[in-house]
Amino acid sequence: MSQPDVSLSPLPLxxxxxxxxxxxxxxxxxxxxxxxxxxxxxxxxxxxxxxxxPGPPTGEERLHAALLYAxxxxxxxxxQNSAPYGEAMVTGPAALALHGFSAVPSLTALEVIDVxxxxxxxxxxxxCARLVRGHTxxxxxxxxxxxxxxxxxxxxxxxxxxxxxxLIGRLLMEAVxxxxxxxxxxxxxxxxxxxxxxxxxxSAVDDLLAEGRALAEGRLYGLVRDGDLPDPLWNVELRLPxxxxxxxxxxxxxxxxVAVELDTRAPRHDEDTxxxxxxxxxxxxxxxGITVVHLTPRKLxxxxxxxxxxxxxxxxxxxxxEPAAYVVVLPR
Length: 332
Description:
This protein is of the alpha+beta class. The protein contains 11 helices and 13 strands. The protein has helices spanning 19-24, 29-35, 59-71, 92-98, 151-159, 165-177, 183-192, 199-226, 271-287, 297-302, 304-317; strands at 16-18, 43-46, 49-51, 89-91, 113-118, 129-134, 141-143, 146-148, 233-239, 245-253, 258-262, 291-295, 328-331. This is Transcriptional regulator, AbiEi antitoxin, Type IV TA system.
């Protein structure tokens, strides 16, 4: 029986296919081996993954190849509703390049493509595909038709391979300044990956925290200005007359006894202790009749009008409350 003419068969994935996909198009392994001989029309990029033209692959073709190798693609004839790459997704520098980061090399300049797979996946890194095993798998984002890890996870996987504090700092800053994610999301991923104990990572994170707070404070200033709210006292410390400090707040309206506090806390190993300390401070202020409005950088970025309404409501409600205890307000 004659072999079908491969050139007439509609092959998927822009010239990068798996051996299993070739078989569904009637291409037998013997024909694949023939096409992949030296000087042949095809080439094997990775075990079981083939490039259907001679010459070097493009950056996009290397991405498809790495995902096909790592993801155990499911054939449409077997499961119509499955993702073509299983649970695999691009991560690390390649994912950051797809997200538009300028501090990473282009896809064509990257020697390897990091692919995040479940930790139970039984495959080895080879060729241009480097497998990153995850205990938990995030929800992937689709970019140019490819499953890509979200920025916090991709950054954590990239940082795990880096020893340059300056480069790490540039990546973290670009993530925050570019609006890709909030510092807290990055720090959670770095903490989960147990990277916050590395000195070169810690120094970059310190700069990130300062940057994140500055951005959040700028958004809070904009919220007060654009929301036509009365000017508060900015960045002050409260204390009872002759008593110990009650804690600092980012904005305070003394006539209405309303305080705003930005939550820019970093993830810590003693997170429960840190949260308990914050909750005790808030409870103490509210027992004194001071309303504490808790805002996060993400809320300020994604819904500033809604957060302005929350603050405005707290200020208006002051007229219906019992007068608050007198507190001393000091610059922080």
